[in-house]
Amino acid sequence: MEKPAVGELQGGDQIKITANDGSTHTVGKEDTFKSEVIVEAPDGTEYTVAKGTKFDKVINEIQKNLEAGVTDAVGPDLKEDCRFYANVYPEPETLVMVNVKQIAEMGAYVQLLEYGNIEGMILLSELSRRRIRSINKLIRVGKNEVVMVLRVDKEKGYIDLSKRRVSQEEAAQCEERYNKSKMVHSVLRHVAEAQNADLSSLYERFAWPLYKRFPHVFDAFRVAIVEPDKVFGGMDIDEPSKKLLLQQIKRKLTPHPIKIRTDIEVQCFTYEGIDAIKAALTAGMSMATADVPIEIRLIAPPLYVMTTQTLEKELGLELLKEATSKVEALITESGGSLSVKTVPTICSTRDDQELENMLAHAEREMAQIDGDDPEED
User: Fold this and answer.
1) CA 94 to CA 91: how far, in whole Å?
2) Residues 6+ away with beta carbon under 8 Å from 234
3) pLDDT tens digits for 299-342?
4) Pick from 258, 262, 259, 278: nearest CA to 322
5) How far apart are CA 202 and CA 288, in angstroms?
6) How many CB atoms lie within 10 A of CB 321?
7) CA-to-CA separations, 220 to 184, 217, 230, 249, in angstroms, rounded
């Protein structure tokens, strides 16, 4: 059975959907869920939403529960959970993910999502490098933001933060780490629920020690899918807990192939014509490997789509570029031409469905042409 896609509430009017292939798209209140999705609210609560449900219905329910302080039965509020890391407070000059709770004259009050939702503040002067005309255009209640830690007063519990000092590249790196930490948290939370155990103790026993041997616990869990003893060997973990932990890791972290696509137009009006096109496309498909298979299909002359499904994202993107170059070199030798209409791109679930619809439509049209009655004299 295919895992549901994952959604994350963005502000009060959008949900960011991450499909199983790793692709993402943002949808709004006027849309409808195209498949089953597990939506995570800013407080960590998970809502399982059925296919065909209206987005505004889901968002309204989440907003209502957030305002009332209600937590869904699927999982506990992160406020009652432990932090993601061993440190109680983040270090100055590090980046953290926060959720905006309130906007005031001095700045914005936020909660540090990776540190047990402790409170911090983004000072007004640290919101933007430019002159601030409207604070509400820079930051919104309910939205997650990447910020830099400026100062930490551990005695008083004050944490000063900055949004303007974070570059786009740094924000992307922080988001990647945060998403990994959320996946680890989800695994451990489900283990804690199944065992009726304290989540903090699971972090102390199974998660935090792994940071000494791996860049991130997420990376350790990925290794554990195929080599569990390499990760958990020598650790103080009983067999039932280990079995349950591995079940959750495999259910949530097993990688899924991603689909990559590029659209090309191939034409040749010389004597060789269609034979030259077939030879060039066949040569392109011959660039495939065991890890990166390549398929080329006709959409409608002269438009073709070249696709691959692979676990190796970067390798897949590069190989499609090389295959396209191979096709172009051969068709050019025969007096033809190749034009790239869409560079190699990861397909979302929606893109994939649109492609299948286009191909099905093309097949129906070809079938109608083949089945036409001959003209009468």
Assistant:
1) 6
2) none
3) 888 999 999 998 888 899 999 999 999 999 999 999 999 999 99
4) 262
5) 44
6) 14
7) 10, 5, 9, 10
Task: Give CA angle at 163 (161, 164), nearest 5°.
Answer: 125
Cis peptide before 302 (omega within 30 of 0): yes
Report yes or no: 326 and 243 within 8 Å, Cβ to Cβ.
no
The contacts found for 167-175 with CB under 8 angstroms, 24 or more apart, are 170/95, 170/146, 171/95, 171/146, 173/95, 174/95, 174/96, 174/97, 174/146, 175/97, 175/146
**Topology of domain 170-253, CATH:** DNA polymerase; domain 1 (1.10.150)
pLDDT for 80 equals 43
Tell me what the mean pLDDT of segment 224-253 comes to.
89
Nearest to 118 by CA among 79, 154, 156, 145: 79
Q: What three-state secondary structure class fits 251? A: helix
Phi/psi region, residue 273 (left: phi>0; alpha: psi -120 to 50; beta: rest), is: left
Q: Is the pLDDT of residue 23 over 80?
A: no
* Residue range 258-369, CATH number: 3.30.70.1130
Structure tokens at 175: 């988001």
User: Can you give the residue ranges of every domain in the chain?
Assistant: 5-74, 95-166, 170-253, 258-369
d(CA 274, CA 278): 6
Nearest to 165 by CA among 89, 90, 109, 96: 96
| Residue 35: Cβ within 10 Å count | 15
pLDDT of residue 39: 75
107, 123 Cβ separation under 8 angstroms: yes
Q: Measured at the alpha carbon of residue 337, what is the angle toward residues 333 and 343, in degrees to the nearest 5?
A: 120
Does residue 275 have a pLDDT over 50?
A: yes
Q: How far apart are CA 182 and CA 190, in angstroms?
A: 12
In CATH, the architecture of 95-166 is Beta Barrel (2.40)
